[in-house]
């Protein structure tokens, strides 16, 4: 959370542990539900989080809020934990973590390039790790990820798209509504795996 004297910014970013939340709950630190405080919110949704500006309030200041999300799947900061497909839905209180990209060591190799989704169908291009981690040549816990545009092989760094998430724990998530063009490019990804962890075909 980013709290100033009059504002309260509880918005989510690409490093947030909840990959695709389906609900949000917010309340003040004293337990009053956000919808009962009378505050006006700039953002209040499971995708964006909560954002409140004091300048929008009759009191000229926001309450101090805490939020939690109902998640389909959760990414934990513990290196031994993994992301799995959304099999069950349970309420999960989440906190913000920072995911750092790891430089691949020589004791491993890159998987083949793969694309399992297309932005023409659905909300964007979702190249989730859990869809490929059991395939031959891939691994459960890769240490790095690379992405490029299918066909042109243009690196994701230069594609101009905004990514909701892109890391070796989750994969690549690109949402059409976040793009200036209204649609993500179609991406393929590959992962760097330690030699001992690579699935054998």
What is the number of independent domains? 2
Unreliable runs: 73-102
Radius of gyration: 19 Å
Q: Outline the biggest β-sheet.
A: 4 strands, antiparallel
The ordered string of helix (H) and strand (E) elements is EEEEEEEEEEEEE
Helical percentage: under 10%
DSSP strand (E) fraction? Answer: 25-35%
Q: How many helices?
A: 0
Calculate the terminal CA-CA distance, rounded to whole Å: 45 Å
How does this model look, in words?
- This protein is mainly β and 201 residues long.
- The chain folds into 2 domains: 2-92, no CATH class; 108-197, no CATH class.
- The chain has strands at 2-3, 8-11, 21-28, 43-45, 49-52, 65-71, 90-92, 108-110, 124-128, 144-149, 165-167, 171-175, 187-194.
- Strands 1-2-5-4 form a 4-stranded antiparallel β-sheet, with no helix packed on it. Strands 3-6-7 form a 3-stranded antiparallel β-sheet, with no helix packed on it. Strands 8-13-10 form a 3-stranded antiparallel β-sheet, with no helix packed on it.
- Strand 1 and strand 2 (8-11) form a beta hairpin.
- InterPro entries: CILP1/CILP2, WxxW_domain.
- It is found in: Secreted.
- It comes from Ciona savignyi.
């Amino acid at each position: 959370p980013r709290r100033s004297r009059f504002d309260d910014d509880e918005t989510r970013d690409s490093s947030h542990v909840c990959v695709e939340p389906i609900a949000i709950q917010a309340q003040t630190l004293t337990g009053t539900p956000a919808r009962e405080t009378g505050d006006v919110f700039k953002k209040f949704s499971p995708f964006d989080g909560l954002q409140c500006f004091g300048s929008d309030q009759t009191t000229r200041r926001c309450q101090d809020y805490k939020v939690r999300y109902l998640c389909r799947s959760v990414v934990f900061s513990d290196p031994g934990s993994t992301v799995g497909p959304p099999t069950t839905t349970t309420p999960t209180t989440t906190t913000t973590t920072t995911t750092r990209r790891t430089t691949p060591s020589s004791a491993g190799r890159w998987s083949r390039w793969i694309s399992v989704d297309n932005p023409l169908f659905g909300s964007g291009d979702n190249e989730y790790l859990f869809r490929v981690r059991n395939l031959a040549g891939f691994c459960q816990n890769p240490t790095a990820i690379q992405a490029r545009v299918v066909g042109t092989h243009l690196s994701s760094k230069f594609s101009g798209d905004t990514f909701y998430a892109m890391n070796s724990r989750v994969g690549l998530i690109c949402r059409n509504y976040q793009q200036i063009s209204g649609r993500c490019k179609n991406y393929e990804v590959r992962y760097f795996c330690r030699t001992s962890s690579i699935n054998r075909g």
